Amino acid sequence: MQKPKLGFWNIWNMSFGFLGIQFGFALQGSTMSRIFETLGAAKDDIPLLWIAAPLAGLIVQPIIGYLSDHTWHKTLGRRRPFFLIGAILSSIALLFMPYSSEVWMAAGLLLVLDASINISMEPFRALVADKLPESQRSYGFVVQTLIIGVGTWVASNLPKWVNNTLEISNEAAPGVVPDSVKVAFGVGAFVFITSILVTIFTTKEYSPEEMAAFDDAGEPEEKKGMLETIMGTYALMPTIMKKLGVVQFFSWFAFFAMWTLANPALTTHIYDAPKPDIVEYAQLDDAGEPILDADRVTLFLNDQSAADYKTADKAYNEASDDVGSKMGIYGLTSMLFALLLTFYTSFKAINRKYIHMASLFLGALGFLYMFYSPGEPDNLYISFSLIGIAWGSILSMPYAMLSSSVESSKMGLMMGVFNMFIVIPQIIAAVGGVVLLHNLIGEESIHAMTIAGIFLVIAAFSNLLITNKKAIMYQPVLENE
């Protein structure tokens, strides 16, 4: 028996929770490095402080994938219990994150936030394969990408909008996160839980019996424990997954470089407004640390030093707001790219491999162009627009190619295992890979964006490894209707 095809609004509702998930990821991606810098982290230490995020994914994703494959709740179904648990935990972490007073506290909350987002996100990928027939899966992943694009654009602009529209200050004392960022994270927490609830209340899942009756259910799997099943999946990884994994490795290394170092790189190289070092303006103790008064307020050298620090910090915060806003462009263009694919794939066949390859080349051009744009913030519209095309493809094409080549009954686990090709490159980048590579070019942090461009070029060429015709070719949704 074939799964029935779903209409646009059914697919939209089942994917709508990704809006909240992407609010969490976008606030994290556009603002976490700013928070770390505000709390006193050195530029080259920032990628390592991010390591909690990919580590959480490496551990959580396959476990949640396995558990969601083997869960059935009479009210919430198979995937939705995990949507709800992850949403509650993520919203709490978002609320507390900007109130961190120390770097270690922010890094710890980042671990909680990323692990919680993964609890919600991982089953969303599998839900597309659960609910949609083969002919609609690319369509389903593209709709998810459309929603992700909206979330990225809006969430990345939140701190700037809060400051400009609500007139909530983006300035704060040394070591304190501005109120505009705190409000933005609060809005993010509300959107996260609300959008997940929309999906939970509007989407019905197929029961295990219904899933078993569909043609793509595959053979009943042998009963094994979770650890044995996960390790067995790693050992017997399909060839298509390995080849796609190479593409994913270089793609996600590039984007991790952007998320961790775009703010220090661009505020310095494009805006000439780096985060001011409080040590240059404050009175210092014998250990070279700023002296605080009884109210834990920094004592400056004199009134002029205090004014100079405030001016430099204001310039940095305004530049950071603008960097975050312009980063949101990649979400907007990924949304438009996804919308174009949605309409096109409704009527025409596509070659997923070559679309993904071309998209990654355009993203690489966007990263490389940043180096040639000092003092030209408007050029970032071009860079992030091109990066958005790559991002839109990264969020849809690899998953569509993979879902066409694995059994539906193991889709959650397969998606979880596949995501190791997302988290491993991020871990390598975090422990020094991105800093080491960009220092080979030069000490300026803008070279992290150059490395991102080079890695996307390698990712693009890696698509040539993919030869599975079933994965590559996609037939239109309306075929035979």
Automatic annotation (TrEMBL):
It is a multi-pass membrane protein. The keyword Transmembrane helix applies. The keyword Protease does not apply. Its main location: membrane. It comes from Nonlabens dokdonensis. This is Maltose/moltooligosaccharide transporter. It is found in: Membrane. The chain crosses the membrane at residues 7-27, 47-68, 80-97, 183-201, 244-262, 327-347, 354-374, 380-401, 413-440, 446-466. The lineage of its organism: Bacteria, Pseudomonadati, Bacteroidota, Flavobacteriia, Flavobacteriales. Keywords: Membrane, Transmembrane, Transmembrane helix, Transport.
